[in-house]
Fold this sequence. Notes:
The two termini are about 35 Å apart. Residues about 1-5 have low confidence and may be disordered. The protein has helices spanning about 10-25, 55-60, 70-80, 105-115, 145-165, 180-190, 200-205, 205-220, 220-235, 240-265, 275, 280-290, 320-335, 350-365, 405-420, 425, 430-450, 460-465, 470-490, 495-500, 505-515, 520-530, 530-550, 560-580, and strands at about 35-40, 50, 85-95, 95-100, 130-135, 170-175, 270, 295, 300, 310-315, 340-345, 375-380, 385, 455-460. It is of the alpha/beta class.
Amino acid sequence: MATEEENLGNVKRQLAKLFEGSLRAVVPDEQDVEPMIAASTGKFVGDYQCNNAMRIFSKIKGRDPQLRNPASVGQAIVEHLPPSDIIESCSVAGAGFVNVVLSKTWMAKNIQSMLIGGIENWAPQLAIKRAVVDFSSPNIAKEMHVGHLRSTIIGDTLSRMLEFSNVEVLRRNHVGDWGTQFGMLIEFLFENFPNSEDVSETAVGDLQTFYKASKQRFDNDAAFKERAQRAVVLLQGGQPEYRKAWAQICEISRKEFDRVYQRLGVQLEEKGESFYNPYIPAVLKELSDQGLIEESQGARVIFLEGFNIPLIVVKSDGGYNYASTDLAALWYRLNEEKAEWIIYVTDVGQQQHFDMFFKAARRAGWLPADANLYPRVSHVGFGLVLGEDGKRFRTRNTEVVRLVDLLDEAKSRSKAALIERGKAEEWTEEELEKTAEAVGYGAVKYADLKNNRLTNYTFDFDQMLNDKGNTAVYLLYAHARICSIIRKSGKDIVELKKTGVIVLDHAGERDLALHLLQFSEIVEEACTNLLPNVLCEYLYNLSEIFTKKFYSNCQVVGSPEETSRLLLCEATAVVMRKCFHLLGIVPVYKI
Ligand code: ARG
C-alpha cells in the first residue's frame, strides 16, 4: 500500500499540503485554516487555484495593515509558499485567487513514475479499512428487475473503486429470502412435487410463474391458505422438511441470479435476510432496554423525530419485517464484521426506510451523531429505468423484462454490428464473441453509470450501442486505436518505459498530461461521494482531450518526439483501462 509520501497521484492533496504551510505563516493566529484547492475552471490561467484569500480577509479584516484587501492576502499566500518542484509559477487574480501553474518537468516525472510503478501509485487514500456494500439484493421467487440491474451495476462499481483504494469490501447480496410468502411457495411445491427428489430448476420452471400460480391458489382456496400459514410457522421453527423445500426454492432463484452476475462479471456474497433472522430478538431487546421501542396499535414501533409515521419493528401479528431485519443486519455489520462504512444501493423509493432506520441506529448510539464520521452508513439511491416511450421500462410482449434476455440482446446486437464491419472475416470466432460481450455488456453498464444516478434514465439499445458520442462503444474503440498506434510504431513499450523520457513542450501534450494527473483525485471524489458518473465524465474527457488536443496536433510515429509521445499514448491507455476496470467494463485492444 502506498504511504502518503509515496502517493504522487493526488495533485490536489500535494498542493494542499504546500498551501497549508503557507496559510499557517500568513495567519498564524487562525487555527486550522483548511486549504481550498480546486482544479482551474479555465477562467484564469493556471492549472489549479487556491481560493482561501477571500475568506481569510473577511475573518481578519483590519487586524493586519499589510493585508488590506483579498488580493494582498493572495499575494502573501504566494510569498509564503515553501519551495517545491511541483509548482512552476503562481499569480494572483481577481479577488485574491492564487493561480498555480504546475511544473512541466514534475508533471512528466510523475507520469513516468506511474508508468514504471503501476497505476496503483495513483490509488486514492481513504480513512477506512473495511466497508460493506449491500447491492443487487433481488427477492427469491419474485422478479429480478431492471432496478436490481441498476443496483448490481452501481454497487459493483462502488465496490471496485473502494477496493482500488485499498479498502476491504464485503460485497453483500441481501436477498429477500425470508417472509410469509414462503409458506405459500412451500405448500405449492409440496402439492406439485410430492416427491422432493423431483424438484429441479427444469421441473419447476420459471419461478415467477410458479409464484403467481401459488398466489392464486392462496387467494382462492381457504384450506390451502391455512396450510400455507402453518407452513410459515413450521419453516421458522426449523422443521427439516420445510427448511429443505425453502432451500430448494432459494437454489432455483439463485441459479437465475447467477446467470446475470456471470454475464456482468460481478462478484457477490449472498447473505440474505434469513441470515440475520436469529439476531433480531437480541437486537430488539437492546433497543427496547434503551427505551426506544414502544407499543402502538398492537405493533412494536420506534417513533422518530421528523417522521410522521413510526418505524415498525414487530408487526401486530408478532412477525418481524424489513426494518427489523435491516436493524439486525446493521448491528451485525458493525459489531461482527467491523465494517466502518456500510453502503446500501437501492432505488430512491426506499429512501425513507433507510433514513428512518439510520436514525434509529443513531439514537441507539450505534453511529456517531455526525453522519460524516465513521462508522458511517450511506444510502445510494437511484432513479427509474424508462423505456423509449418514457414510461417504466418493459419489453414489448411480456410484462416483465428478463435480465438475462436483455443482456443477451445487448451482446447479439453488438455482435451484429461487428459482423457488419467485416470482423467475422478478420477475427476468430472467439475474438468475435469476446469483443461482442465486452462491448454489449459494457454498453449497458456505461449507459447506466454515466448519468447522475438520482435521475431516471432511458434504456435505449440504439443509443448505448452507438459508436459516436458518450458511449462505451466509442470509448472502447478509442482505447483500441491508442493501442494500435503503439503497436504500429513497432517499438518495445516496456523498454521505452525504462529508458525514454517524457517531454511536455507542446500545449497538446501538456493538456493531456494534466488530465492524466487528475485521475487520482477524480476517483477519490467519485468514491467518497458515491458518484460513478464523475468517473465516466473523466474518462470521456480523457478520450476527447487525447484525440482533439493531443493526437490531432502532435504527430506521434516518425516524429522527433516519438518516444515521449508513445509514452503519453501508453499512459493514456493505462489510465483508460483502469477507468474501464473500475466501471466493470472489459477493455478491447483491437477493433
Ligand atoms: N430486496 C430489496 C428489494 O428488492 C432490496 C434490499 C436492499 N438491502 C437492504 N439491506 N435493505 O427491494
